[in-house]
Amino acid sequence: MRLVLGFLIIAVLLVLPLLAPQLENHQPLIDYRQERNLSLAASESGVTRYQSWGKSKDPVVVLIHSFNGYLETWEPNIEALVNAGYRVVAYDLFGRGLSDRPLKPHTLALFREQLTALRDTLGISKPMHLIGASFGCVIASDFALHHPDQVKSLTLTGPAGWPDDKNAAQEWARKPFLGEYIFYYAGKPLLLSKLDSYLLNQEDNPWAKAYWKVYQSYPGVKRAALSTLRYSPVLDYTAGWQKLGKTKIPVQFIWGRQDSSFPYYHHREAEKLISQAEIVAIDSAEHWVNADQPAETNRAIIDFLRGIR
């Protein structure tokens, strides 16, 4: 009897991660959004939560957060951009924050669809300034390559997409079945451990974990993270950087000198691949440079945007 029970327990442990997507209940997330009357943009793949600040007539800046982030990670930057004369829009990527968690591969095409739907919902007709953080830089660059007429400039903070031996362990998570087991049983601790490394001054930014713990409580976060790792070039966007370097799109990179996720030494590759890029290095800043050193980051962004004709 004990042997049979043991086999049953093992079978459940093996099968549960594979069935998890079908068992997700998204109604609590839908209810949470409705109770707070949030701004939402709909597309074929799902609903996006967004916020907008500033005057509708002002030039538009769209903020695209990181792989493990949410729109509030831009709170240290929004007021400065609005005061500088920009209409600012921030949103939750699919699978993050309070946006939907689509049951489909999280490819760059999916994130392009999301940004296009947001642009249509807000009635944005002129080219936008896109500002990305980490994987948000990859999404912003990919969108610019596919829709160059809709993008005025790119500001890329703590950019992901630079191959590095230090990220080799993440390749294991992309393997079939193994990834499902890793993320089902250890996904949230792994994602939280990464969050701990994004800020040099974690104790000065208690909001980072506070928001994250609310948003990760809704199903689909671990699945979306795994799907993004598998189907989007989070760790190696070299081909995209090469294409970006052949365009005339104004590009600014802002790197924290203490960035441990995609270290500052990758700026040498950025300079080679994207000759038009302006590189800004900021001291005492980790991966989320915009939050570690907001004043200096805001100054660099605004100076760059004002210099674009």
The helix/strand series, from N terminus to C terminus, equals: HHEEEHEHEHEHHHHHEHEHH
Please give the largest β-sheet: 8 strands, mixed
Give the N-to-C terminal Cα separation.
77 Å
| Structural class category | alpha/beta
Rg (CA only):
20 Å
Number of helices: 13
Task: Note the overall shape.
Answer: globular
Strand content: 15-25%
How many β-strands, per DSSP?
8
Describe the structure.
The chain has 309 residues and is of the alpha/beta class. 46% of the residues lie in helices and 15% in strands. It contains 13 helices and 8 strands. Helix 11 links the parallel strand 7 (251-256) and strand 8 (278-282). Helix 1 (2-23) crosses helix 7 (178-197), helix 3 (75-83) runs parallel beside helix 13 (294-306) and helix 5 (135-146) packs across helix 10 (238-244). The longest helix has 22 residues, at 2-23. It is globular.
Per-chain topology:
Blueprint: H1 2-23, H2 27-35, E1 39-43, E2 46-53, E3 60-64, H3 75-83, E4 87-91, H4 108-122, E5 128-133, H5 135-146, E6 151-157, H6 169-173, H7 178-197, H8 207-215, H9 221-231, H10 238-244, E7 251-256, H11 267-273, E8 278-282, H12 289-292, H13 294-306
Parallel strand pairs: 3-4, 3-5, 5-6, 6-7, 7-8
Antiparallel strand pairs: 1-2, 2-4
Helix pairs in contact: 1-7, 3-13, 5-10, 7-9
Outline of this structure?
With 309 residues, this protein is α/β, with parallel strands linked by helices. The chain has helices spanning 2-23, 27-35, 75-83, 108-122, 135-146, 169-173, 178-197, 207-215, 221-231, 238-244, 267-273, 289-292, 294-306; strands at 39-43, 46-53, 60-64, 87-91, 128-133, 151-157, 251-256, 278-282.
